[in-house]
Amino acid sequence: MKRRNFTRALLLGSAWELSRSAPGAAPALTIDSARLRRSLEELARFGRNLEGGVSRIAWSQADVEARAWVRESLMSGIGLEVRIDPAGSIYGRRAGREPEQPAILFGSHIDSVPKGGNFDGDVGSMAAIEVMHTLHDKKIATRHPLECVIWSNEEGFAFGRGIFGSRAAIGEFEPGELEATENGVHIRDAVRRIGGDLARIAEARRKPGEIAAYLELHIEQGGVLDRARVPIGVVEGIVGINRYAARITGFGNHAGTTPMPERRDALVAAARLVLAVREETVREPGRQVGTVGKLEVRPGAPNIIPGEVECVIELRDLSLEKVENIFRRIEGRAAEIARATGTTIDITRTSSHKPALATPWVREIIRGQARALGLSTMDLPSGAGHDAQALARLAPMGMIFVPSVEGISHSPKELSRWEDIAGGCEVLMQTILAIDRR
Ligand code: HGY
Ligand code: MN
Ligand code: MN
């Protein structure tokens, strides 16, 4: 995919007009790839940005409308019992021949980051419903009950903590999380917008043994599969993610009359802290990553020396121990920076999502079903966080990746090839049926 074609597809405003994907035979599909494509193109309308991509922040009006459309247009009339759980996650349950069996659960999320893409979460969510629709059309009965799910607030742009719906399914919240307010809105009022009810949040918790396995189809969001031209990724594990709130306090003063040596400039200190995050992250070998993606300067006027800065530090790795070691080094650097700049720097951890390894026998089934379809596979870790890392604490878990063109994600330029999405959906369905036969 040449860059110019890729830009062309974007400029056309329809990322779908893509040339064929990886060479090799297209698998024999049972799912309806045209219907899946229509679902994704329809979903892209909710929160669409003029410059392409989408802003469908969790619990926003765009999310409310998209979720109503999913329930009323996609999930009705295909043999599902649809419900919204107290966290706002949408479940569609399909009866099995043996009702006492645990359910096979599969799904993803449809909330996005600001100015995000039309594939992150959307592919796995629409594919889960397409699987249910295909099974309904073909009158395929399964032993196990099946459940598809659209989780609530996976991205965590709303209220600063993600995988909210899936953490509710395992009963895991941060201290004070359910009493938080953001821009004057209490979290219980935000969740109520999509039909949740925090007063009953305990009912969102799934019981151990209730779920036979959890599967999630998702775009890779990195460039490994695309570079290797491999259509299916079998995820080995999902990184742990720690987030920290840093508050840097200096002294706001007149930008014209305050001599340079007398300044206690919070933004100068924050700038050094941002560089320290990078330096301490790369200090040791490995795939760990560290980011400062959100920073606010106050009062924020060109003629006032910044008195206060708040920013969020995010560290990720498959090992939380490594994350905590990096954080300790950053804390040491912050103390030095505070002394050198005459500021104070307070850093507190606001969330910690544990890493999760995928279940070997589930990975084996995914790999086998992909190959039976003539699709090559590659094992790889996930540098992105997912609801699956919460579900892995409740049931056997597997994730299926499809390539992201040029490894771009969390951007309007996010793009996956049409054939890869359809192939991933077929692998999801065949994996579900193989687990059902197990
Ligand atoms: O941030 C992540 O890794 C995921 O896309 N929510
Ligand atoms: Mn996602
Ligand atoms: Mn994401």
Can you summarize this structure?
Helices cover 33% and strands 23% of the residues.
Describe it:
This protein folds into two domains: 2-239 and 355-437, Aminopeptidase (3-Layer(aba) Sandwich); 240-353, Alpha-Beta Plaits (2-Layer Sandwich), CATH 3.30.70. 33% of the residues lie in helices and 23% in strands. It has helices at 3-11, 33-43, 61-74, 122-137, 164-169, 187-193, 224-228, 266-281, 320-341, 360-372, 388-391, 418-437; strands at 81-84, 90-94, 103-109, 146-151, 181-182, 185-186, 211-219, 232-238, 240-249, 253-254, 289-298, 304-305, 308-317, 344-353, 356-357, 377-382, 397-402. The strands form four sheets. Strands 1, 2, 3, 4, 7, 8, 15, 16 and 17 form a nine-stranded mixed β-sheet that branches. Strand 5 and strand 6 (185-186) form a beta hairpin. The longest helix has 22 residues, at 320-341. Residues 113, 120, 155, 410 line the site of one manganese (II) ion (MN). (2S)-amino(hydroxy)ethanoic acid binds next to loops.
CATH class of the largest domain: Alpha Beta
E-strand count = 17
Hetero compounds? (2S)-amino(hydroxy)ethanoic acid, manganese (II) ion
Described by strand count, sense and barrel closure, the largest sheet is: 9 strands, mixed
Examine the secondary-structure arrangement and name the CATH architecture of the largest domain: 3-Layer(aba) Sandwich
Number of domains: 2
Shape: elongated
CATH T-level fold name of the largest domain: Aminopeptidase
Distance between the termini: 39 Å
**Percent of sequence in beta strands:** 15-25%
Helix segment tally:
12
Determine the structural class based on helices, strands and strand pairing.
alpha+beta
